[in-house]
Amino acid sequence: MELKVDDLQVDCSDRGKEEEILLVGSRICKLAASGDLIGLKSATDELGIGSAAGPALSVDDLFDSNGFNPLMRSAAIDRRSPSIQGQVECARHLLVTCGADPDASGAKQASGFRALHLAAETGNEEVARLLLAAGADRDAQTVDDCWTPLMLAVIGDQLGVARLLLQCQADAALRDSSGRTAEDWAVRLGRCEVLNVLRRDLCEVCRTDDVAVTFRPCGHRTTCRRCCVLLTVCLSCNRPIEIKEGQLEAASADDEASSTSTEPVPIDQQQLDERFQCRVCMSSSVGVAFGCGHQACRGCAKQLTACHMCRRFVDTRIRLYN
């Protein structure tokens, strides 16, 4: 007999209704997994999930027979699925409207897996972006095997998600219960493309291009050829940069003029209010705020995919005005 949405109001304190709670969870999980956004909205509305009054049951308390919660089910869909966009929108609804916890793990039988683990394993890059933007722990480890999302992306040969996690500063040095790192798994399984990404030394500003510039006199290498144009002090030691070895000769006429000039830039740092100074280039005033609340100047903000302060994925840029 099919369980109707009208009958889904459940009191969690009533142990006699545990089976009914499982039926509710299975139905919600099935809607999330199928990408049925209309059905999911209808079901969560009927349950009062996301309402101002607050539901008797949180969406994080709902599980299917495998111990997966609805958010995990929306993430555990292969990126090649024809209904992938529906699952992305279901994940967005669960996170934004229903207040799902991006780090909520499944029931006991789910072995500590979270939605980000499943998105990494299946290559569901868009859901992974949503989870990271919502504050999901990029280095969370499963209970039994101690696998991180990055390890699962490597094991599943999911290049896009692996690159995304590295851009968001996932720790590639963590080890699983067998003592292997993500790089060890890439070597063991012959994941050549992912291995190349893991071994890249990425620019600390854009987190997409390789480090290619040496600053003098400090000798640090932290940025790519394009992003180095933005900097007047080293990101590692904060010393003034006199020479940039390996920078682009002429990304544009303006860049060429600024990069080939031997005269010091006449900027009086004492006159800049530190509260409004960009922490990337250390020369311009902030002009853009990210979703996490941190700020950068407009030029630097265009280059960043992860916040330079907290390393959260940048999904929102708000222009600031004086």
- Strand order in the sheet with the most strands: 4-3-5
Number of helices: 12
Write down the secondary-structure element order.
HHHHHHHHHHEEHEEHE
Shape: globular
Q: In total, how many domains does the architecture comprise?
A: 4
Q: CATH topology of the largest domain, which one?
A: Serine Threonine Protein Phosphatase 5, Tetratricopeptide repeat
Average pLDDT, rounded to a whole number, is 81
The first-level CATH class of the largest domain is given as Mainly Alpha
CATH architecture of the largest domain: Alpha Horseshoe
Pfam families: Ank, Ank_2, zf-C3HC4_3
Domain RING-type: 278-311
GO molecular function: zinc ion binding
ANK repeats: 111-143, 145-177
Topology (SSEs and partners):
Layout: H1 18-34, H2 37-47, H3 70-75, H4 84-97, H5 115-122, H6 125-133, H7 149-155, H8 159-167, H9 182-189, H10 192-198, E1 214-216, E2 243-245, H11 253-260, E3 288-290, E4 295-296, H12 298-303, E5 317-319
Antiparallel strand pairs: 1-2, 3-4, 3-5
What does this structure look like?
With 322 residues, the chain is mostly helical. It has four domains: 1-137, Serine Threonine Protein Phosphatase 5, Tetratricopeptide repeat (Alpha Horseshoe), CATH 1.25.40.20; 138-200, Serine Threonine Protein Phosphatase 5, Tetratricopeptide repeat; 203-260, Zinc/RING finger domain, C3HC4 (zinc finger) (Herpes Virus-1, 2-Layer Sandwich), CATH 3.30.40; 276-322, Zinc/RING finger domain, C3HC4 (zinc finger) (Herpes Virus-1), CATH 3.30.40. 34% of the residues lie in helices and 4% in strands. The protein has twelve helices and five strands. β3 and β4 (295-296) form a beta hairpin. α8 (159-167) packs parallel to α10 and α9 (182-189) packs antiparallel against α10 (192-198). The protein is globular.
